[in-house]
Amino acid sequence: MNNVLATKRGIIGVGIAIGVLASLLQFWGNPANMGICVACFVRDITGALGLHRAPVVQYLRPEIMGFVLGSFAAAYAFKEFRPRLGSAPIVRFILGVFAMIGALIFLGCPWRAVLRLAGGDFNAVLGLLGLAAGIWIGTRFLKSGYNLGSSHKTYTSVGWIFPIIMLGFLILMFFNPMLPGESKSGIIFYSVEGPGSLHAPLIISLVVGLIIGFLAQRSRFCTMGAIRDLLLFKQTHLFVGLVSLAVAAFVTNLALKQFNPGFANQPVAHTMHIWNFAGMVLAGLAFTLAGGCPGRQLFLSGEGDGDASVFVIGMIVGAAFAHNFGLASSGAGATTAGIIALFIGLISCLLIGFTMRESM
Amino acid sequence: MGNIIDAKGLSCPQPVILTLNAIKKQKSGELVILVDTDTAKENVNRAATAQGWKAADIQPEDNGYRLVLRKEN
User: What is the model's pTM?
Assistant: First the structure.
């Protein structure tokens, strides 16, 4: 194997790099225990575009654009750009919607669950247990023949669509720059308070995003795959990458005095253990059925996978629903509407799992 | 010529599942796995190696790879 980053040492190195960079992003201005949160950041982008109007979570997070464009660059540099699509797009869209709703009930994707733990937020333990439980349910479906079907090769231009959209977001940011104290610049919304107002300088966020996107494309880093492969194949390859991320973020947090252990009063978190757990069961199941964590879906989008892009667009729509309908949790806890949506999501994912099985 | 498993276009972890199922059925000999991404190529190779199989040959083939896996009796 000539891909150094896909070896054991490679994935450990990538995990460490992501952990340190995520912790540093918090130091440079990102919200606490949210150096990188793919779900939260996609949600913030959704808000910046005005697709939801929760004023505290609106910012065009350049990390997300960096993830896709960094992966795009790596895929081209190493001749791995393969435009493809056609594997159950509507199903992937729905999975993206519910993955986002589940993540926003917990208040974080798997990336942030690990970063929350590394920052001393013990509520994340419930989220991670829920994530593992959801992934375990997903592996039962995989074992019994669940399969979204094959994608097929498509035109190069199709693979460029999602990276171009990300470039478009950066251009929007350039022409509608943040104005201090203003909640809107041109057509783009900017939070003036709350987590959406906390961010590292644009250029730093973008560069870190590009680096992680590049490394993650090469190493195939995936937080869901880490747990799935462990449960399904007893394979630890991706898992050591995830553990490396956690340890590196923890050590960096200690060094930067960003480690505050406890359950109560953790930043952008709540202490309703059942819903922290259940929200991530839904997210974990949806990621498993879709074949990748939210970060991985961005990296796949960068290397030409149109179906992964549909999942991401589902996450954007899910984020809009989550805030327009009050499904997302807050520091005060989960909402009744959110809990109803959680059960609708679980039933939907189970139906997808049960009805999309090929006889083996 | 061994059995041919076409895993082209399948998401993670389907290529690995198909490979491991085939390995379970066929204890030794030769297996041919077709994949369309580098990720699937690496994953199949890694999983087969863990089962004591060897990638005897990996060749690029129409928009993907053809892996020949082998295990002696």
Answer: 0.97
